[in-house]
Amino acid sequence: MTRFQSMRAVVAGHLSGALCDACVGDRLALSREQVSAAGRAGARGLAFRRLLGRCSGCCTMRTVTRLR
Fold first, then answer.
1. What is the pTM for the complete model shown?
2. Fold category of 3-67 in CATH
3. For the chain, which residues make up each domain, given as ranges?
4. Which backbone phi and psi does 27 adopt, to 5 degrees?
């Protein structure tokens, strides 16, 4: 499974569907940079939406990723 597919599964499986790169990285054992790159690629491909919001994993205001 690619990083993009893994990230999509984690975000889709989360109830609110909005997680920051750090929380996704913790769940996938990836660095924040690796998750950020996969998120940006997914946003260009219109699979993800990246925006400033509250992460439902850690409750901080950060750039979060959610499915479109």
1. 0.84
2. Arc Repressor Mutant, subunit A (1.10.10)
3. 3-67
4. -70, -30
